[in-house]
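job 3f2a | input accepted
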Amino acid sequence: MSRRMKLGLIAGLLVAVVGAVAALGAAKSKNKAVEVRLEQVGTRDLVAVVTASGKIEPDTKVDVLSDIQGRITKLGVKEGDFVRKGDFLLQIDAAIYQAAVSRSKGFLASAQSDLLRARANLDQARRARDRALELQKTNTSLITQESVEQAVTGYDVARANLDASQASVDQARAGLLESEDNLRKTRIVAPISGRITRLAIEEGEVAVPGTFSRDVGLLMTIADLSVILAKVQVDETDVVRLAQGDSVEVSIDAFPDSTFIGTVTKISNSAQLTATSTASGSSDRAVDFGVEITLTNPPQDIRPDLSATARIVTDIRRGTLAVPIIALTVREHEKLPNETTPAAAGDSASRKKKETEGVFVVTNGIANFRPVKVGIAGDEYFEVVEGVKAGETIVAGTYQAIRDLKDSTKVKAAVTDSAKGKKP
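job 3f2a | predicted structure (424 res):
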């Protein structure tokens, strides 16, 4: 046998050996069990919640504005003070408004004098008219027709002057009332009892009416902190699950070690649209609904605008069958011949594979996907309505293992870190 033939034979043997080793390794790898976390299906108490964030606000607050313009000459409160309804807040310079009152009083006095003069003129004109008419009735030769007409006309003019004078008095009196009202407005008192939560001005600044801009005319804000609300924004997909009276746990960032109990008292019927930017740079509109939660026992030193997070309880299940949330996965599921379907028998779409929620049930070390129907979701577990029974073993982790798992895969319980640390 030549050397070339010997080398060819050896090479062929090596290829055969390598192929056999690779096939043996593949077979071993195929039969190797995947380490997963296993858990038995059991019953649990589940609480379904909707989580939303927002801020703390008082149920009643009033923005104090000025109806007149003027310089603030005295400020009687500071931010954080508690005031009662009617307490003095601030004084606006009243000099020009006091002068306006004096001027209005002068106009009223003048108008009243004109009214008296017009009334006297009317009385005189009435007597002259009556005499002229009486003379004409007695003897037409005693008075001319022209004189009678002048007397009648004089009476009509005097009556009109009286009406005008009366209107002037009414106008002057209204002007005086307006001036006095403006003068009263120079002294601003508390409209409600509460705490000064915002003081937007200083003594010496000019108060302006908030006709065109509420922020420009704002002097201070008084909040009644006896009833405290947590106003949160709930996504449109969750708001349909809420109802008035739902119990709520509220966490306030300023009180990290405390949780406060509340009740849903108002759910907005109109959406609040907010702009959101996506990863592609496009701008979408997020639809949220405002929800008001009344705190049962708020802390004494609470303040408006504190950040808060609400966990609204929407449903509770006691002793219900449950599987871990991580165990639920989605697979393409082909309808079996004896499996019922709501679609018509001739509908080809009903025979196609479709994605179905389910879990991997382990029997004798083999994991197989089984569709399940779930109910409410707790923090870590889903309620199972149908699909599995209590006591069955399912794959409960890890996430990557469940994602890669296929039907008829051998599995075994993963060794925990605590078990690894034990000595034989």
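job 3f2a | The helical segments are 3-31, 95-138, 145-184, 214-217, 236-239, 399-404, 417-421.
job 3f2a | closed
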